[in-house]
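User: Structure tokens for this complex, please. No commentary.
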Amino acid sequence: MDIQITKNTNPKAKPDWSNLGFGNFFSDHMLIIDYTTDKGWYDARIVPYGPLSMDPSAGVLHYAIEIFEGLKAYTCPDGKVRMFRPHSNAARMNRSAARFCMPALPEDVFVDSIRRLIDVDRDWIPREDDTSLYIRPFMYSDQSNVGVRIPDSYRFVVILSPVGAYYPEGLNPVKIYVEDEYVRASKGGTGFTKCGGNYAASLIAQKKAKDMGFTQVLWLDGVERKYIEEVGTMNVMFKIKGEIVTPELGDSILPGVTRESCIQLLRSWGLSVTERKLSIDELYEAARNGDLEEAFGTGTAAVISPIGLFSIRGEKLQVQDGGIGAVSQRLYDTLTGIQWGKLPDPYGWTLEVG
Ligand SMILES: *Cc1c(COP(=O)(O)O)cnc(C)c1O
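Assistant:
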């Protein structure tokens, strides 16, 4: 696909690379590709970063017709820039798109157009230790019409954000509130998709957890509120009596790329990984009797997030000594080692961007 490039003639001052945080800064350009049912994907362009205009009746504003993705690119010690498993994100975005009757974007267009954008904004990729370039692709309907019907026009956009270490002082265990009032997703719903609507509906639980001093919520299944699903923006894994257990995927759990990568690494180390239903009662018992050896979240932003404490029905349960488990640490070191090009990449997960 041909991509028109309009250079930003008014580039921003670069941020303080040692104090980026997450999602606070955006590069000088963005990528836009338009779609209509008649034309298909057309007019791919890289333009100066700036406001997107749309009609006040656009579908995204009224019916949340929007999906997104999240992945990262890294500056490696050899000076090359590499993305982590971008084809997995491309495939997942198309599974989200199908659920919302949105058009599929060819995987190669997804990956190649991001490559081109990164190339244009190459001086926005941080090089400091523990930094990366967070890539946020999203698709929404800009169609003007407040009738509830499947739109004919959409836009695919990609923006880039240089981000710092998620935990500036290294891995840091988080406190998790087990949410048993609100639900994130249900059978037949949109839990397996990355859509803005899922997050809009989750904010109230996030606020509740924050107000009580917890970092994130652990979601239970939407039907019985019994089985563990995932943590806020991450999938979740437990080490129980030497075995790694993680909730089995279904239509209410987001299939994380980090989750899949962790399962592959864990198995390659000879650890047993079981994907199955895990009830909150089983977790409670395991935490009580000392069988729960580790708990951690997995996701692109933090990579691995050790869990030090759970609040279950008003009771606080610490995971071992509340610190970082050996498996969590090894997964973090290995995954980030592969991503930052400091360790070999035996699975071909990284893709050179330039
Ligand atoms: C993005 C996301 C994850 C993690 O997926 P990764 O591909 O590993 O980043 C987990 N849960 C939810 C709800 C998410 O949106």
